[in-house]
């Protein structure tokens, strides 16, 4: 397999990946005067994030968008204000973290988390929500200094937590995880079912990168541990932020050098090799549920399958 054969895949937007049209302007995060001016500018837009959710609303032309207000309509609580960036028209975006979402603004506005909203929102809105949810998750879990144990406070418009006792600065963490579609020399794909998944749900294998490991080594180790299959060549395809709570999914196609499956029984309950025809038939019979959702897993399977995967409920 030649290198970069999946380069096109990375060009198409993958769910939850931030849009290119937002400039995060990291250099302005420490400038309180600049932030105050940006916050109070009439074109600035603010949305509330709470517990991984935000309000979304359907437009009259059938789109779904984040419910945003001018900043002057939002309560000023600078300690929970995240600056997310500026778009190509100069509009600045903030997320306001609160304990609860505001009351619904009209009949159709409703709370939505990323798993739902990621499929419905425009790339811009989805990217803004991913950024806000990732910051919220990190803020929530890092209220105490990992160096000295004292309380930390928010800084840099949500992008730093600073320890007032020892002065340490803590930055949002991102945990690398690998997700891979393994294929064999007959071009069959290896799909597994995790122990807690319902009957019929199969997907790619995945796992966290361990300290001291390259990502390629991580792919080979995870596949070996979970299903007992050896992997040779590993080809990077694309990545996806996965803020549940703080991962970055690194997507690969991986070539198996052995075919005997021995599941670990702890993470993976069942794994099978599927030809394209096997998978099509399994979708048709209902034996395998079509992968659906925001995960890059569906994209990896689709790349191998060669055409769009059926969605749940499609007549095959
Ligand atoms: Zn400290």
Any idea of the CATH topology of the largest domain?
Answer: Nucleoside Triphosphate Pyrophosphohydrolase
The arrangement of helices and strands along the chain is HHEEEEEEEHHEEEEEEHEEEHH
Q: Main beta sheet, described? A: 6 strands, mixed
List the bound ligands: zinc ion
Which stretches of 5+ consecutive residues score pLDDT under 50?
none
CATH homologous superfamily name of the largest domain?
Nucleoside Triphosphate Pyrophosphohydrolase
Radius of gyration: 22 Å
Known CATH architecture of the largest domain? Alpha-Beta Complex
DSSP E strands, number: 16
Beta-strand content: 25-35%
Terminal CA distance reads 31 Å
Just give the CATH class of the largest domain: Alpha Beta
Overall mean confidence score, pLDDT: 90
The number of helical segments is 7
Question: Could you name the key traits of this structure?
Answer:
single chain; 316 residues; alpha+beta; Nucleoside Triphosphate Pyrophosphohydrolase; 2 domains; six-stranded mixed sheet; four-stranded mixed sheet; binds zinc ion
Notes on the protein architecture:
The protein folds into two domains: 116 residues, Alpha-Beta Complex (Nucleoside Triphosphate Pyrophosphohydrolase); 132 residues, Nucleoside Triphosphate Pyrophosphohydrolase (Alpha-Beta Complex), CATH 3.90.79.10. Helix 3 packs antiparallel against helix 4. The strands form four sheets. Strands 11, 12, 13, 14, 15 and 16 form a six-stranded mixed sheet that branches. The chain has a four-stranded mixed sheet with strand order 4-1-6-5, sandwiched between helices. A hairpin with a 4-residue loop joins strand 8 and strand 9. The model has no long low-confidence stretch (mean pLDDT 90). The longest helix has 19 residues. It is built from seven helices and 16 strands. The two termini are 31 Å apart. The chain is an alpha+beta fold and 316 residues long. 23% of the residues lie in helices and 28% in strands. Zinc ion (ZN) binds next to loops.
């Amino acid at each position: 397999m030649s290198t970069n054969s999946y380069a096109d895949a990375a060009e198409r937007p993958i769910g939850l990946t931030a849009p290119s049209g937002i400039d995060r302007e990291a250099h302005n995060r420490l400038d309180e005067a600049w932030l105050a001016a940006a916050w109070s500018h009439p074109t600035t837009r603010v949305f509330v994030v709470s517990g991984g959710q935000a309000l979304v609303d359907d437009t009259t032309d059938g789109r779904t968008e984040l419910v945003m207000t001018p900043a002057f309509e939002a309560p000023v609580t600078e300690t929970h204000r995240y600056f997310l960036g500026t778009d190509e028209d100069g509009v600045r975006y903030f997320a306001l973290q609160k304990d609860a979402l505001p009351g619904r603004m009209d009949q159709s506005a409703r709370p939505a988390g990323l798993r739902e909203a990621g499929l419905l929102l425009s790339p811009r809105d989805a990217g803004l929500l991913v950024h806000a949810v990732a910051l919220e998750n990190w803020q929530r879990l890092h209220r105490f200094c990992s160096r000295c144990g004292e309380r930390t406070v928010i800084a840099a418009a949500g992008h730093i937590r600073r320890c007032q006792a020892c002065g340490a600065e803590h930055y949002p963490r991102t945990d690398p995880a690998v997700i891979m579609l393994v294929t064999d020399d007959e071009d069959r794909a290896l799909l597994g079912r995790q122990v807690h998944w319902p009957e019929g749900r199969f997907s790619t294998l995945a796992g966290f990168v361990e300290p001291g490991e390259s990502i390629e080594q991580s792919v080979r180790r995870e596949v070996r541990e979970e299903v007992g299959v050896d992997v040779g060549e590993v080809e990077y395809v694309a990545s996806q932020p996965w803020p549940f709570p703080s991962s970055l999914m690194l997507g690969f196609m991986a070539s198996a050098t052995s075919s005997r499956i021995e599941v670990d029984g702890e993470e993976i309950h069942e794994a099978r090799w599927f030809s394209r025809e096997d998978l099509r038939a399994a979708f048709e019979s209902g034996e395998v549920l079509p992968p659906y959702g925001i995960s890059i897993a569906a994209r990896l399977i689709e790349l191998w399958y060669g055409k769009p995967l059926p969605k749940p409920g499609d007549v095959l």
